[in-house]
Design a protein that fits this description.
With about 325 residues, the protein is of the alpha+beta class. Helix content is about 30%, strand content about 35%.
Length: about 325
Amino acid sequence: MSKPTRDESLTRKPIRAKLIFNTIAGQPQQSPHQLTELLTELQKQHIMPEVFIVQPDSRVESVVRRAIKDGTKLIVVAGGDGTVESVASAMVGAPVRLGIIPTGTHNNMALNLGIPSNIPEAVNLLRTGTPVKIDAGELTIGRARRWFVEVLTLGLWSDLISAAGENQHGDISKVGELFSTLVASSPFNVRLLLDGHEKVEAAAHVVLVANMPYIGPNVQVDPQVSFKDGLLDVFLFSDMSKLNLISYALRYIGGGSENGAIPHYRAKRLAIASTPPAAIMADGVTLGAGPLKVKLHRRALTIMAGSTRGRGPKRSEVAQLKQTI
């Protein structure tokens, strides 16, 4: 991507932005250097940020909503997926653009959207990238409502991905912990209602509702999942032994091929009930258990992206995804 000439940069209209910077994402010891580099690159792009440093007790969503109310049109978040998704959920439906500077461990959101991990290149996308409108999921549990942009799960998926990710980074002991969890677990009965008419009932260890093709620690659920097709992809992990379940998670961390044995549905609206109630997580946040409803909102969030594919990159195109276990 070519850099602007000096004359071009002088004619650029300055942009006022809100910068949400998480100092504990990724490698915290590098945060001071990252912030200095980030502010320098923003200045080069004539982007004038008001900086908010995330603290452990910070209410990031409130900060974002206040910035939107004050007329800010560009919100830039520097951090990992948890910080990015917290900011994104507070922006759904607002006429504001989100810029992502990936400084976390997995940077899964950035991966899906073709945003480079290099700070100067990521900042350059705030000017030269394509505004992509992505879908967002809205879930309701009782009276509580929450947005998600990556994935919603019921059951053991969070344990599977945690252990598989640690295995990818060399901590084999986590796999032993996962086997212990699986041995002690039992499947739950799940009832799905898809778009108000299609009913599915099964015994399952995991229900996964994906809006992004890559989730968690860069796991490619299915290459056909898209964040801008107006549909959620529902995967039902039933009729699988516990050994096959962990094998599936480890294989997908390593870039395995599709598994047609896993039932796959697509819908705009879902109603999900489980017996006994299964643990629910949305974008990595634990939400308890109980019946829930899910609704997709199409083109609900605008992000400055490097790719408009909607399905993320091919594994062969990204260095960290080429490895196999």
